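Budget justification aside, the reviewers requested a transparent look at the raw inputs and outputs of the sequence design task funded under Objective 1. We therefore reproduce one unedited record. The lines immediately below are the structure tokens for a 217-residue chain.
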């Protein structure tokens, strides 16, 4: 069992966890195509350095948790490591039905996701689609404050998501934003139809933060 700090205090965000998973998959793939020990050893250190560069202000116990990556060489080891590492992921901010209602006060008969079925450790944002209104709703942590963004959503086909940069089933999300004292304009982009898959693909919050910035200009 991996222990991080006392009482197993979480220290990773969902996108950082996904980044670690991505790097470890690349490492294991390298083991499948070469037996050169010097190359593999260099890649191990490079993988660790990349991960450490993404996570700031770690203490020694937390570094020790991630240093266990240096012993990984095959898929089964990755699976075990990631399963234990999940305990070190900070859940997305607590959300209940009251929170959602406050974030979307003007929406009548708002259809909400089943919150009890969601593992909030897997989220960098919460998103869902209301088929009745053909609208998509996003709840995002913007510098420590939860914000709600809604927009029309028309499913398209396979494409690159503006939030996670994954090649997934996407749709055009368009939100009406204020562009002047009494004028509004529509802004948006193609994003994943499945927001949970999008969260799984996120290895950085840069695109998500940029998306919020564009819609909040």
């Amino acid at each position: 069992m991996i222990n991080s700090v006392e009482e197993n205090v979480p220290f990773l965000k969902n996108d950082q966890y996904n980044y670690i998973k991505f790097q470890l998959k690349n490492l294991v793939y390298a083991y499948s195509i070469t037996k050169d020990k010097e190359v593999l050893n260099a890649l191990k250190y490079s993988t660790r350095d990349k991960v450490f560069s993404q996570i700031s202000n770690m203490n020694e116990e937390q570094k020790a948790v991630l240093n266990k990556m240096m012993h990984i060489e095959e898929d089964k080891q990755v699976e075990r490591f990631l399963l234990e590492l999940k305990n070190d992921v900070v859940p997305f901010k607590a959300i209940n039905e009251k929170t959602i209602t406050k974030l979307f006060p003007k929406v009548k008969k708002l259809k909400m996701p089943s919150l009890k079925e969601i593992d909030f450790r897997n989220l960098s944002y919460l998103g869902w689609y209301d088929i009745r209104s053909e609208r998509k709703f996003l709840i995002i942590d913007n510098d420590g404050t939860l914000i709600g963004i809604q927009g029309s959503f028309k499913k398209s086909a396979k494409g690159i998501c503006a939030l996670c940069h994954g090649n997934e089933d996407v749709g055009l999300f368009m939100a009406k934003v204020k562009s002047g004292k009494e004028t509004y304009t529509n802004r948006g982009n193609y994003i994943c139809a499945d927001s949970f898959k999008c969260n799984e693909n996120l290895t950085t919050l840069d695109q998500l933060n940029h998306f919020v910035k564009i819609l909040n200009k």
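Residues 1-6 have pLDDT under 50 and may be disordered. The helical segments are 14-33, 37-54, 60-67, 75-85, 97-103, 195-201, 206-215. Computational costs for records of this kind are itemized in the attached budget.
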